[in-house]
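@here heads up, posting the sequence + SMILES for the adenine run so it's all in one place. Ping me if the SMILES looks off, I pulled it from an old spreadsheet.
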Amino acid sequence: MEPRLTPSQYGCDLAGWPLDLPIVPVNPTLAIALFMTIDGGVLLGEHIGREMAKRLAPSKPDIIVSAATLGIPVAIEASRGLGLDRYVIAQKSPKVHLGDALVEPVVSITSKGQQNLLLDRNAIPLLAGKRVAVVDDVVATGSSLKALCNLVRKASGEVVSIGVVLTEAHDWRAVLGEDADLLVSLGHIPQFEIRGDEVSVIPETLAHPVPA
Ligand SMILES: Nc1ncnc2[nH]cnc12
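bot reply: prediction finished. Complex structure tokens:
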């Protein structure tokens, strides 16, 4: 069994929607506030879509792109909020129809090892020459969003904005580089240091970091 950490939850705000997230270890010294978009309910999904749409609308996207699995509700709800129909989801696991897919590597802090993001070649016509908003649930390392931006560009789409529900710490800024300027979010979560069964916020990972 995982040790129970104290405190066990972190309270955050998603554009006016208060949420208590469970604090879970990702390794012996680091814990995160876990946000699972698929467990939040329909009303939270609607709220996320409405608030995400407000923030993405100024970039006038034609279509939204995200990654399976936790990005899927964000893509659907943001598309609904923007009045868009089609959206494109990059897959993480090879599917029978994806033998010939466009591929980009990803390193995640919540899944072990290296994975790939795969874009179905049949989706290329939906993206080529289009203004594309890339969305995801949480940006931590920035690796998934960077891979998504690379896939959109390989498909000749223009990345006009990046929308995430939560930013987590700040490592993503360096990984995204100039693309970090395209990013909008609904909230921020820090990361946590584990000592024994107690956790404390790492000050440099707060929205307005406290220098070490
Ligand atoms: N806090 C978090 N919740 C869910 N997925 C994540 N991926 C990276 N950080 C995460």
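MO: The chain has a mean pLDDT of 94.
MO: One more: The pocket of adenine is lined by residues 32-35, 109-110, 137-138, 140, 168, 189 (CB under 6 Å).
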